[in-house]
Design brief:
The protein is of the alpha+beta class and about 220 residues long. The chain contains 9 helices and 6 strands; from the N terminus they run E-H-E-E-H-H-E-H-H-H-H-H-E-E-H. It has helices spanning about 15-30, 60-65, 70-85, 105-115, 120-130, 140-150, 155-160, 165-180, 200-215; strands at about 5-10, 35-45, 55, 100, 185-190, 195. Helix 4 (about 105-115) packs antiparallel against helix 5.
Length: about 220
């Protein structure tokens, strides 16, 4: 018997572990076949809400935020690239890569959820940022992403330029923070089970099968 399951995937566009976690989760769900019928919703979280529009060099940002040396930062990027490659995702993260403000991307994702194209847009935004090095806060980049996801480009531009859904996104961010989410990805199952971090597919699958057996 197929079990209904709601999954809230709390994440940020500028979070590499969120890419790894999403792909691990999706592989786990594929492996489970028709055991569960999943309602997957992408929820907003900003790692750096005060990031200016021009962004910041990634290595510089990591050094300031976590105290990492350039060598430690480079080693960490290489490890993340390898983990992403294991999931089939190409993550460039080359020297000189920048981290950007993602609030407008989250507003666009909110709209895409209403239009039924949220998952497609999420994957495209990840690829544009991590693979192509594009700025996910740039209006034209966001319009391109929307069109690739099957959304109307002019409607997407209107959403971005108008500032629409800002209040809704802020409310959602505050909700998840109030529930204790302080790092991403945070994967909440049926509103009560939490799986944290960019886990491999096997970890997600084991947890999801256990949860499905309880419901």
């Amino acid at each position: 018997m197929t079990k209904p399951m709601q999954i809230d995937f709390v994440s940020d566009i500028a979070c590499p572990w969120c890419v790894i976690g999403l792909r691990g989760l999706e592989q786990a769900l594929h492996n489970m076949g028709d055991l569960v019928d999943v309602d997957l919703r992408f929820q907003p979280f900003e790692l750096n809400p005060a990031m200016p529009p021009e962004g910041q060099d990634v290595a510089e940002h990591i050094q300031q935020k976590y105290g990492s040396t350039p060598e430690q930062s480079a080693a960490n990027r290489a490890m993340i690239r390898d983990r992403a490659a294991e999931t089939g995702f190409t993550m460039t993260m080359a020297p000189g890569s920048r981290i950007y403000n993602t609030f407008d991307a989250h507003r666009l994702l909110h709209w895409a959820g209403i239009e039924g194209r949220q998952k497609a847009l999420k994957h495209i935004l990840f690829a544009l940022y991590f693979t192509d090095g594009r700025n996910p806060g740039d209006v034209d980049v966001l319009v391109t992403a929307a069109e690739r996801a099957g959304l109307d480009g002019s409607a997407a531009r209107d959403v971005i330029v108008s500032g629409r859904y800002a209040d809704e996104v802020r409310a959602d961010e505050n909700l998840w923070r109030s529930q204790g989410v302080s790092a991403v990805p945070a994967v909440i199952i049926n509103g009560k089970y939490l799986i944290s971090g960019g886990q491999p597919a096997a970890v997600f699958e084991k947890a999801l099968r256990s949860i499905a057996a309880e419901t």
